[in-house]
Amino acid sequence: MSDTPSPVPVSSAAARAAVLAAVHFDAKGLVPAIAQQHDTGEVLMMAWMNAESLAETLETGRACYYSRSRGGLWRKGETSGQVQKVLDLRVDCDGDTLLLLVDQLGVACHTGRRSCFFLAPRGDELAEVAAPLVSPQSLYGA
């Protein structure tokens, strides 16, 4: 057993098939995927993947998720330029959650923050503990 990363993209069709076979998608065909910055351990975001988005991620090395609101594939950074290069991918012990070790180019959150996890209990309220690094308008032109 080795914890040496298997580079993504995964060039072997057999290895891609083994990953897909190990994943237990839910009744809607989805599995949660957590994106973590590979070198700092910072948890950036959680999104959903289906078999098609997982296969694309394995083939290209670029994070591709399934957008439940859009009902289709969501290639991270496609509109914002905030791309996630996947350096390694881990399947948890039950096969029902994925961990993507990524190199995040820019911010991960649509609010302009580095991480989507920027709210925390402070005193009697839920407070922002990280400020936006970039305006959402500049990312999405809204």
Topology diagram in text:
Elements: H1 13-22, E1 31-37, E2 43-49, H2 51-60, E3 64-67, E4 72-75, E5 84-91, E6 98-104, E7 119-122, E8 125-128, H3 136-140
Parallel strand pairs: 1-6
Antiparallel strand pairs: 1-2, 3-4, 5-6, 7-8
Give structural notes.
This protein has 142 residues and is α+β, with helices and mostly antiparallel strands. The chain has a domain at 13-105: Ubiquitin-like (UB roll). Helix content is 18%, strand content 32%. It contains 3 helices and 8 strands. The strands form 3 sheets. A 4-stranded mixed β-sheet has the order 2-1-6-5, covered by helices on one side. Strands 3-4 form a two-stranded antiparallel ribbon. A two-stranded antiparallel sheet has the order 7-8. The longest helix is centred in the first third of the chain and has 10 residues, at 13-22. The relative contact order is 0.18. Belongs to the PRA-CH family.
Task: Provide the descriptors you would attach to this structure in a database record.
142 residues; alpha+beta; Ubiquitin-like (UB roll); four-stranded mixed β-sheet; two-stranded antiparallel sheet; globular; Phosphoribosyl-AMP cyclohydrolase; EC 3.5.4.19; PRib_AMP_CycHydrolase_sf; zinc
